[in-house]
Amino acid sequence: MLRYLSALAFTLVLALPLQAAPPNVLLIVGDDQGWTDYGFMGHKQIKTPHLDKLAREGIVFKRGYVPSSLCRPSLATMITGLYPHQHKITSNDPPLPKGLKGGQAMKDPGYLKLRAEMVSIFEKSPTIPKMLEKEGFISLQVGKWWEGNACRCGGFTEGMTHGDTAKGGRHGDEGLKIGRQGLQPVFDFLDKAKKDNKPFFVWYAPMMPHSPHTPPARLFNKYKEKTKSEFVAKYWAMCEWFDETVGDLLAKLEKNGQAENTLVIYLHDNGWIQDEKSAAYAPKSKRSQYDGGLRTPIIIKWPGHVKPGESDKLAHSIDLAPTIMHAVLGKQAKAMEGINLLDPHWVASRDTIFGEVFEHNAVDINKPSANLQYRWVIDGHWKLIVPHEPNVKGKPELYDLSKDATEKENLAAKHPDKVTDLTKKLDAWWKPE
Hints:
Elements: H1 2-14, E1 24-30, H2 49-57, E2 59-65, H3 71-80, H4 84-87, H5 102-105, H6 109-122, H7 128-133, E3 138-143, H8 150-154, E4 158-159, H9 184-196, E5 200-205, H10 217-224, H11 230-255, E6 262-268, H12 291-294, E7 295-301, E8 309-316, H13 320-329, H14 344-349, E9 352-358, H15 368-371, E10 372-379, E11 382-387, E12 397-400, H16 416-429
Parallel strand pairs: 1-5, 1-6, 2-8, 3-4, 3-5
Antiparallel strand pairs: 2-7, 6-7, 9-10, 10-11, 11-12
Helix pairs in contact: 10-11
């Protein structure tokens, strides 16, 4: 009965009539931002007025997650609707050649060959742009993009990222200018779509608020009065600078008359907790198995279809591709693992989500389990983290997120039956070699 009432309440939020024309799609992906670090999520210092407005105009899933707390596997999941162990992009980079560091490795022929092989592996997976092009969509990539040439490898009809390693291609190259150096490429694309009367998909993933934290002086000066740490002030200022670019982009949609039939989705690729004494991230954030690295709000706005509100149900970045395809086609590709977040009954019936955390540099680019550090599952408000031996030594960790959002008290010893039950669910999802 309770589940029925929950589904009914959610239906009142989402169930609105569809229209004949398929929507345009704008996917906004923040880069390295904490899940609490927004006005609409209750942060007392950081100002994000444009994302706050987007949140008021859409449905906000406050308990959203990405599968992995590292950007490349996380982004690959968003664009494919597959888990990292399925699309096999589990790490940011190939194994480092012995004796070489990151920058040096980019000149090593063997290392570059492995980078090219990783992109080839990714190309075997479906992508949103490839599927939408069949429906007459044009698409644009700007910002972070790891998988080679955005058009050739990702299926975008236009893109800023060339992916040529000889010219600095790694995780976005020319695309990384977006946001920090304006939005003109996106504005030009939107004008073209309007002129040609074409439906469109935009991947807006600026490297913001990602380090280097180089905000405008006007914003840094604003925040340095609010904290004793210059590093925290710079990060906070970057969050507002990113928010300003989102506001500019949404204002352009309004100006062009394209906002009314555009599905806008927002989330960030992984979390970030700013270290107070350095420019680095603090423990239990990026690259970790904890919510500080995995949790993100997910906002969906679609005028006339999504009634504004908030949901405490679990949402996952693996749901983005299915949600987009259902909005456009009324169905998703069979291979996609996620659910349609616009379906209230589907959302209300979900109690469990999964994820996996891997090495930054792969051990074996063809074998996900060789790179695996942790698997995790959230069931209701219980979260279990299981280290993958022999790669990582340690014991399972169990947390009650309803009482312990920062995961300070490991309850595994107190609730062995819960550990056993959730481990079975993890193994049924994916049991690595």
